[in-house]
Structure formats: structure tokens, C-alpha cells
Design a protein that fits this description.
- The chain is an alpha+beta fold.
- It has 2 domains: about 5-75; about 95-150, no CATH class.
- It has helices spanning about 5-15, 50-60, 75-90, 90-100, 100-110, 115-125, 130-140, 145-150; strands spanning about 20-25, 30-35, 40-45, 65-70.
- Helix 6 packs antiparallel against helix 7 (about 130-140).
- The longest helix has 14 residues, at about 5-15.
- The radius of gyration is 17 Å and the shape is globular.
Length: about 160
Amino acid sequence: MTLEELETHIEIMLRAFKVSYKIERIIKNITFQFIVNDFGLIVSGIIGADQKLIASSVNQLFPNYRNIYISELDNLLEEKDRVLWALMQGGYISWLRSTYNRDFKNIITMQEFGKKIINQRLKIWAGKEKYKYLIEYNESALRQSATYMLSIDPSFYDYMPEEIE
């Protein structure tokens, strides 16, 4: 895959998420950056370059943003999920619910994305005791319909916890 093809794929991904962005090229012909200011995310495409060098430049120019690096060798379906989780950590689902409510409900209920969100949360919390209530609440939600969960807790699907190190 060429740099231009990778850029096109990532642009299509971000358009599907309905987010606004701008494009920067820190090091031409090697990398590009999609800056999603509303959610504090930078998605960098990289072709045959040292990620540490690019990460250093990105962090210097855009401190306090979440960063995702995607290369031509990465599985774009898996990367799409990583981008979505990072957007969610910045409030994306809450924004989607208030801006595109019908799309939000369709994604959560009809496409069963709500279950995917819950499973990702459970993966992050990894059974740790300090998240016991949240784990139990989310495990309980897996046994309920998404429509029911939205009726008792409209913002239930709005958040994604930060990755635990």
C-alpha cells in the first residue's frame, strides 16, 4: 500500500465516524497526520519510517493529544477499532448521541456495537478488584438488551476508560 492509499483509507474511516479533521504532513513522503481537534486525537499514517522519530515530532507539535500510528502493514479493521476507542476516550459517543441520535441508536442496538463497547471495557479492566462494581455492572448489561440499557441509563455507552498500564 502506498502512502496515498493509506491516507485515503484513514480519511474514509474518519468520514464514516462523521468527525471533522485537518491534515498535516510533518515529514513529507513518509507520514501524514489527521488531527481531530474535537476529541484530542491524532491519527498518523506511516510508510517505512521510524515510528519513534515521528512520535517525537508529533508529541512536540501536538502535546496532550492521544496518538495512533497506522502503517501500511497494519490491519485496517483492527485499527478502526483502536481509532474508535481513542475517540470515545475523548467523548465521541456522547457527541454522537447528542448530534446524530438516530445513527447512535442504530449503531448501538441494531448493529450490536454496544456489546463490543462493553467487551472492550471489560478487557481494559481485566477483572481488577478496584473496578469490581463497573465490571459487574457491565457484565449485567451484557445480559440485557441495548435498548433496555439506554432506557435506564441513556449515557451508559458514552465512555471508554483509558488503557491501564
